[in-house]
Specification:
Four Helix Bundle (Hemerythrin (Met), subunit A); globular; 7 helices; mainly alpha; 75% helix; 148 residues
Length: 148
């Protein structure tokens, strides 16, 4: 099946915008970041939205590949993207970790510390960039997935 290029491109634009905001927030001094609840809330929101976009994209790709069973849970989406050759195994492992973190943000939000958020936006945004690059590579081709 053909991928929905418009949907994927729209999601990539959203992800790009969220990452730009997160990169700005990552430039803030750690002490200022953790002491300003508005900044922390913005970082948490942009990070959660970024994670949702990543897994929405992954779900779409797997569903269009006929792997609907792998598109139901975030961690299986990460593994499915590796099995389809969409992302490298190293990035797939990062995506699996992201899936767990997304669940913490949504369900165990009371356990997520401001310092933890700062560390993530300061060090882990390149993983999102790698994902963006992988999806853009697919879209640059014929719009079909690599045969894994």
């Amino acid at each position: 099946m053909e991928l929905n290029r418009v949907l994927l491109e729209q999601r990539l634009v959203m992800l790009q915008g969220y990452l730009e905001e997160l990169e700005k927030l990552a430039q803030i001094d750690r002490q200022e970041f953790v002491s300003n609840k508005i900044i922390v809330a913005a970082a948490e929101s942009y990070l959660r939205r970024s994670l949702e976009v990543v897994f929405d994209i992954g779900r779409h790709i797997l569903a269009k590949s006929g792997l609907v069973d792998l598109a139901s849970e975030y961690k299986t989406i990460a593994r499915g993207l590796v099995s389809k050759g969409v992302v490298a195994p190293e990035l797939g492992e990062k995506l699996t970790q992201m899936a767990g973190y997304r669940n913490r943000l949504v369900h165990l939000y009371h356990q997520v510390t401001d310092e933890e958020l700062y560390e993530i936006i300061s060090h882990d945004l390149p993983d999102f960039r790698a994902f963006l690059h992988a999806i853009k590579n697919i879209l640059a081709g014929p719009g079909r997935l690599p045969e894994a």
